[in-house]
Write a structure and sequence with these properties.
The protein has four helices and six strands. It has 127 residues and is of the alpha/beta class. The protein has helices at residues 4-7, 15-29, 34-37, 61-74, and strands at residues 30-31, 55-56, 78-81, 100-103, 110-114, 119-122. The chain has one domain (4-122): Uridine Diphospho-n-acetylenolpyruvylglucosamine Reductase, domain 2 (2-Layer Sandwich), CATH 3.30.43.10. Helix 2 runs antiparallel to helix 4. Helix content is 29%, strand content 17%.
């Protein structure tokens, strides 16, 4: 049996699909404005730059789940970004313009600090 990930073709997100993402995330969590997206298209070292039609910035795990479910339904590739501080360009979209950036930057809460154990519990977007 062929590996479904190897045979899956990505879909270019059209305006209708993008509006579905906008409905899930609202104006604070969705942007298709070039000046807003631009800083997130290049890796931290400035070595790799890609292209994306939209920046998706969910505020909580429920929104992340809804975005992933919608992307899977429409076969849209997502490029996750935490703090976008990676050194290997894994959080940089390619040049196809088919991938959406899933930025976790709005998920930036520190939820617990345990000084005795030296532990901090925080959301994925904390830098």
């Amino acid at each position: 049996m062929p590996d479904p990930l190897q045979t899956m073709e990505n879909t270019v997100p059209d305006v209708n699909i993008l509006s579905e993402f906008r409905a899930i995330l609202g104006p604070k969590g969705y942007s298709d404005e070039n000046d807003v997206i631009s800083p997130w298209l290049t890796d931290w070292r400035g070595r790799f730059t890609g292209s994306s039609p939209a920046l998706l910035s969910p505020a909580n795990t429920q929104e992340v789940a809804a975005v992933i479910k919608l992307a899977a339904k429409h076969r849209i590739s997502l490029v996750p970004q935490g703090g976008n501080s990676g050194m290997v360009a894994g959080a940089t979209p390619d040049n196809s313009g088919q991938q959406l950036i899933l930025s976790l930057r709005r998920m930036n809460s520190i939820t617990a600090i345990d000084a005795d154990d030296g532990l901090v519990t925080c959301d994925a977007g904390v830098i």
